[in-house]
Amino acid sequence: MEQLRTVAATRYVTPLREGGSLPGLVEADDLGMYVLKFRGAGQGPKALVAEAIVGELARRLGFRVPDIVLVDLDPTLAKNEPDQEVQELLAKSGGVNLGLDYLPGAFDFNPVVRDPGPELASRLLWLDALVLNVDRSWRNPNLLLWHRDVWLIDHGAALYFHHGWSPTWKPAATYRFTAEDHVMLPAAGPITPLDVPADMITEVLTLVPDSWLAADGTPPTEARDRYTRYFAARLANAPQWTEALEAARAARV
Ligand SMILES: Nc1ncnc2c1ncn2[C@@H]1O[C@H](COP(=O)(O)OP(=O)(O)O)[C@@H](O)[C@H]1O
Ligand SMILES: [Mg+2]
Description:
The chain is an alpha+beta fold. Helix content is 33%, strand content 17%. The protein is built from seven helices and eight strands. Helix 1 (45-60) packs across helix 4 (198-206).
């Protein structure tokens, strides 16, 4: 079965201070450079779960996403780190972390400077509504322009319902998602659902390490089952929320 590649971090290079999660640039034993999302960061391992699920789903739906790898981190890497905050983060993040292939020389993507085209814009808006990604606003688009193409990053805040799981959790009938601030709203063409087969969801969920899924005490099979139920319910409701998205878009034009 397909799995995410695993590498070992060999050197912490520098923090990427942008949002709150303090990702860092690391070098790994395959000589690649990766943007590391730490399991010990404030948002916890669930941010890594969301990052993996949404990134791999987006890739399978035809979006460009940097390669995602699992990064083994030896917490003793912290010893050489002068910055106290970084040192603590490294020390707390021993084990499996998530890495994104570093795209050297990428720019933050701004749709005002470069038109993404109506098709990419509406597909991305729909994807973010599917996965409840609230982190794609015009203030903070989390899109990179690299080799003239648009690349998706930073999906750790998606699937936010998993932060409030109880043993009796069921997917809600509806979820809050506001398109108003979405970076692609002004550029989007008519919005229609993408085809997301159930086995695509299953495949993506098998890529997520058990240790991240189980970090809150939920057995990994149960956690995968909950995400599966979420996607089944959200996709079954797609006609309704797609219509609401389309109404928001049409009102903008
Ligand atoms: N794969 C990547 N290649 C190049 N730069 C990246 C990559 N991933 C993130 N960055 C840069 O690091 C910044 C912070 O990363 P991001 O994933 O958005 O984390 P957060 O917003 O939680 O701090 C991004 O805004 C971007 O400038
Ligand atoms: Mg970000």
